[in-house]
Fold these 3 entries.
Entry 1:
Amino acid sequence: MPELPEVEVTRRGVAPHIEGRVVERVLLRRDGLRWPFPPGLAALLEGRRITHTGRRGKYLLIGFGHGTLIVHLGMSGHLRVLPADTEPKKHDHIDLVIQGETGLQALRINDPRRFGAVLWHANDDGELDQHILLRGLGVEPLGDDFSGATLFNATRRRSAPIKQVLLAGDIVVGVGNIYACESLFRAGINPKTPAGRIARGRYDKLAAAIRGILAEAIVQGGSTLRDFLAVNGQSGYFQQTYFVYDRTGVPCRNCGAPIRQIKQGQRSTFYCVNCQR
DNA sequence: AAACTTACCTGGTGGC
DNA sequence: TGCCACCAGGTAAGTT
């Protein structure tokens, strides 16, 4: 379940191995993931140089002179860089074969559940941020224009619970289930509270919590960077200390009350009834 | 029209 | 051991 921090750490992990290098060959072991791969994808990339990498929310961006490869890891996707002749394992769907310093390397996409996506946006198609999957996205939580004011202003007409509004991603991106639960705990806000009923000051606290928790996760992930490169490395979830997530019935680290699990929009929410009001 | 709700895709896992 | 309900994130489709 890669969330924003995992995607960012993945980007940082693979960037030194692929930026500035030419894609020699593209191997596709199936037709698509969530959606079919772009038609002619191999021909589109082979012989072309990767100019840069980027990220928008949980979308990993691999930039070429003529367009951008948009990669989403879905729930179970994983990227690794390994020697190109490494035998592909189950669910290894795509290789971008690149001439590295020590021979041919593959940027390999593995995704058991295939909820991930690989899309192409040509420069001719207009601005990248107007791409159908990117244009509705909220602000970057680690960017300069995210604050309590962002949340407050965007929620005045939102009656849905704050947890679900955060998750929707149209106000701020990259806050998945884990980070939504954890940041609401840190801010002391009950996840069921209608978003439009939360005061400005509490949103300041929530924005700080979101920013802080995501930034900490990226730092934590930095120490696992080499896992993204190891042949057998399955970089699991970052070993962050959770306060509420997946701790149903366990005493709250703050007050000792048992952490409660509820469903909001088919999704599990974990919170402390005592610390979050 | 915007906000909200629900269904769905897949495979690994854990309970029985 | 085998079956099966359950879970996950994000999008599409449907509803208010």
Entry 2:
Amino acid sequence: MKKKITIQEVAKKTGYSTSTISRSISNPSVVSSKTRVKIEKFIKKTGYVHNYLAGSLKSGKSGFVIAIIPTLRLSIFSDYIHGIKEKLRENGFELLIGVTNYNLKTEEELVRKFVSYKPEGFIVVGTKHTEATTRLLLNSKSPIVETWNITDKPLDLVVGFSNFSASHQITDYVISLNYKNIAFATPTNEHMENEHRSKRRLSGFMSRMKIAKLKTTIFYYTEPMNHKLCGKQIFNQFKEHDSKIDCIICGSETSGTGLISELNSRKFQIPKKLGIAAVGNSDITSLLHPQLTTVDFKVEEIGIIAANNLIGKIKNQKIKKIHDVGFELINGASVVNQRTK
Amino acid sequence: MKKKITIQEVAKKTGYSTSTISRSISNPSVVSSKTRVKIEKFIKKTGYVHNYLAGSLKSGKSGFVIAIIPTLRLSIFSDYIHGIKEKLRENGFELLIGVTNYNLKTEEELVRKFVSYKPEGFIVVGTKHTEATTRLLLNSKSPIVETWNITDKPLDLVVGFSNFSASHQITDYVISLNYKNIAFATPTNEHMENEHRSKRRLSGFMSRMKIAKLKTTIFYYTEPMNHKLCGKQIFNQFKEHDSKIDCIICGSETSGTGLISELNSRKFQIPKKLGIAAVGNSDITSLLHPQLTTVDFKVEEIGIIAANNLIGKIKNQKIKKIHDVGFELINGASVVNQRTK
DNA sequence: ATGAAAGCGCTAACAG
DNA sequence: CTGTTAGCGCTTTCAT
């Protein structure tokens, strides 16, 4: 086992100073090509490995960016991370991921841990945090991007969409199809407690229904991440409900796809006997039949823009504090106009 | 903007030495509780943030583990990462993820970059790497776990399953249901080039078919990550094929779910008019109707065991070099016994 | 249980 | 274009 070789040895053996070695690694263009070639050859020969961590201690630039997400196991979040990661890679930053399981206290613990890594920026999901999280984040003096929601008072930057408007709009669309007895499915309160976004979606629905002067029904599910269970729970409430619901709007892509799957397995005809819509899209919706009518949040784009704006801020560029990426209506066959059917 | 405070200032202001401060942070139990409380209070008050990177430079332990995967956008890989991450977290390691897009040259570049982060271990997908990758990995002197395949000559450790056997077994099962004219769908050669696992799956199919003395048909797809496109391409070849195929085994969960979706959208009855099976499972299969009959690789378990074994090796424990986690047959309704139907 | 001293491996002024 | 110098902030023997 040969001993570890440092930049010092490379310097000694090649006859250059450590600075020149350092430069020829991190900024080759400032070194004469003769020198560079000689050094590179020596490095290749000996298999010297540059210690990035030592460098960042001195330079004060860790190159790390922290992204904190609720879970890695829903495709909306892995697509979002994919967007972030791509943008960071282009700019030479490295990503450290923290997973909260939708728990704000866990988010706090993650932030507490990650500040020790001296990251150059934070990208977090949501605009609601514990006081300690906020303090830690602000104290770090690094740029922060909040995502997946929009607010007029971000900690620093925000890139997202209005969960209220998204829900409002899908409800509006469902109403425009002449559905009259519409239910909204949402996580139970205890599961919403940490998930401000679900509440905003429920509000969006209620608000639009009030305008239409329609009666509202709420169904609940307890396992927001479990497609099948959401589907089953919603179906059970639907079945036992006394008045005749003609459309269910699910508060998430998870519950929406789960419900379609549940109904399919019961050969319950959609949209003939019941319309289904949702707030949120995923790669699954387009594989189901009928395809779910829903609102797509362009999560990868949120990731890309969040990373982009964060990097801009790191580089002291002037960045727009509030970026609303909006959303897009996905017109599936899971609802149909009630007049013309 | 208050200046950054270091361990030195904490030492000075509390009247202790830097060693004591350091200990009370990373190894509190060796410090008297009176001292610890005093220091902790001071830290809380001033918001001092420990610099983890500086510490690891001195201690020689970065705490980083590198995981390299083909993509983050297939749930099999995010579930796998989830398993790894969970185990690492329990043991105080931090995860750095590299994404290859199924390209071995990209894998090489990622490894080249990541060795500079002085990681304490590597977890890679696959047992096939470029020569340079192998050299870099071995040169790093860190433990390495190869995954998703099994080999009797791992670089270091391996945790996986036999792609050949998995494919062999699903073929065996399909044959046992008295299907006679079975096609196998696989990525085109140019897309397999870097993906040894697809070749092994094709071989498993061919081998079992040979034993059964059945004629083989191969269908190809060109975009292994695109569910819908795989499905369409396979369907087109099926439609234009002259002899009457009664079952298609798809080489991946992606193509399998894509094909079911495609057939559903054409109201093509499964398994009545055509049986569908696959090699590989994902969260989508159980939401489709009929549910895909396939082989499940227990990817999260692979992640957990890989991380576990890596950590064991880091801690100089004796770890079994080769760990075959096997696979499990998932019995969906996408195939049916041809005799009794 | 605590302190003093040494230095992990690198980068960044600054000088030439 | 290259070298000299002076640490980055922490951990870790080795003492006491």
Entry 3:
Amino acid sequence: MKLEKVTAKPARRYHDACGAAHGLDLIGERWALLVVRELMLGPRRFGDLRKDLHGISANVLTQRLEGLEASGVVRRRRLPPPASVQVYELTDWGREIEPVFIVLGRWAARSPSHDPTLPISAVSIMLSFKTMFDPARAGEAAMVVGFVFDETDFRVEIAQGRLEARRGEIKDADVVLVTHPQAVAAAVYGKAPLNALEAQGDWVVRGDARVFERFVDFFHLPEKAVLEASP
Amino acid sequence: MKLEKVTAKPARRYHDACGAAHGLDLIGERWALLVVRELMLGPRRFGDLRKDLHGISANVLTQRLEGLEASGVVRRRRLPPPASVQVYELTDWGREIEPVFIVLGRWAARSPSHDPTLPISAVSIMLSFKTMFDPARAGEAAMVVGFVFDETDFRVEIAQGRLEARRGEIKDADVVLVTHPQAVAAAVYGKAPLNALEAQGDWVVRGDARVFERFVDFFHLPEKAVLEASP
DNA sequence: CGGCATCCGGGAAGATACTG
DNA sequence: CAGTATCTTCCCGGATGCCG
């Protein structure tokens, strides 16, 4: 006998008209915002999400995807045959969460306890470019930088003081880095010497390495906040 | 024998270099962001916080304040005698969370499940003015609107297409409303008729009521998002 | 294997009572 | 008034197992 899905959400809500409080009802549960982050650059499969959300368990991921789908943030789709696999993607409205990442990330980067050397996902590093890009430093520079992370291609295009970061074709890239996100973070935010990374073997450059050297200079983390202690 | 406070936080962290993930480590626990919200307009006492965070329990509020203090977001201070009471306030860096509220609130207000008629705190309604103010509608209007919520004075000043909302003096206000936040939400966002609210008795106007009628027109909730269902 | 249900241990949240 | 102590409830995280 099949149990009816009596889910009957009692669900811990704030019951508050405040917009921010309702936002927390939608994406405030543990892992929820990071699931959305991983979908920010396009549809993903369950297993891919699980792999890049280090530490999440399968059942929690299932619950979050269900919750986000019920809220209208995420939508589930089955790709047409012969693929026939299920993927999860953001709705149009879900995609509009992006500014929340930008401002939250920019604020938290100033935290004294923020450690940019920790592991980072491919999507995170791409979004960080949007967050930390300094148009003043880029000036009129124009370039296409490609990244290959674990068989997947990502591209960052800079032109007219604007930056676009997404998944996609990198045939036209000025330079392509075959590496992993953490090494990119070390180069861009840690300003690690590029030849050292190359020597370590987790870094292969295709194309004009000088372009990437300029690229690195367009980004920098904000200054750490200075704290007043409680007396 | 007194137990040493071996707090030794193992603490559930994401362990992720992503700025947003670290932001969640700081303010992602349940209630944390709403505690910050209640401090956004200046120092508050423990009991005041508890009263306006409907549903929080004393021990959770204690834990959040401790955590936020440890993170450098909140600071604890004892007012000079004869008051000699303890208050909590945001640090300079903590105050910089404001944009997170603005964008999160603006995004969540478009949620199909957002209900603006729920209870709302005094601080929330004041912050909502910053979030939902439409400079185009205000044009060159200039006014000072005062609110008295439960013995505390708040002021909103509009001038040159800009809005400022804070606690403070309302002697120079063009109009003052003695009421409660939910009634203001009904008037401003629900566009409830003002005389109806006055008739219900939870609404006293001092000064020029016409000024408030214009004020209401400067704010409106964003359109609800239209959702694509999962097939 | 991908997606999801189920069971279980630990820990955080919620409610209430109690103390200085 | 400002928390602390205690108890219960529920969520999170990990493991296992089912089924297409």
